Amino acid sequence: xxxxxxxxGPLSVPEGAIVSLNCTYSNSAFQxxxxxxxxxxxxxxxxxxxxxxxxKEDGRFTAQVDKSSKYISLFxxxxxxxxxxxxxxxxxxxFGNEKLTFGxxxxxxxxx
Amino acid sequence: DAGxxxxxxxxxxxxxxxxxxxxxxxxxxSYMFWYRQDLGHGLRLIYYSAAADITDKGEVPDGYVVSRxxxxxxxxxxxxxxxxxxSVYFCASSDNAGPETQYFGPGTRLLVL
Lengths: 112, 113
Fold this sequence. Notes:
The complex is a heterodimer. By secondary structure, chain A is mostly beta strands. Chain A has no helices and eleven strands.
């Protein structure tokens, strides 16, 4: 079993819709959880990160962690075509973020 | 230019050849990482380095060698390339001050024939 599981998609939604991206993890030692966005043929870029359980909001993006169920979510409100990308979740137990463990990524397309 | 760069961006080689992928960062970050990205596996850590002359294995180190004689450079060598090493390789760096300080390079697409 992979430490971080993520539905690879692809996921297609119309512009303006709310998008929900999800991951599950199995390593109880994970304390930090990240979401990366990766455009085609580019390197991943950090979108958001959270520590332990709870929500974090940044503009149209909300990251949510439920440690009791080992569930990580990213919500995108008012989705835009520019949000079309692959989204990767990751977890780590170390503040220095060495040894990030990634999910496989979900490919998202926002249809204008 | 400031940032993290990788070279070459694309490489085609043959089975059995030695290949070196270069990574250079201008932030003087202490940590550097090499990942490979494959369909169905996502990003997997190959090797990482906490400082110059300090390296350690990640999840998939077999067939790879790294060195870090200077803080800004972290080359990855495939000693004898195999077809299973066909992948996209990403270098990243971090100053160990939180996830927001980790940055990825643009990647190197490697094809082993």
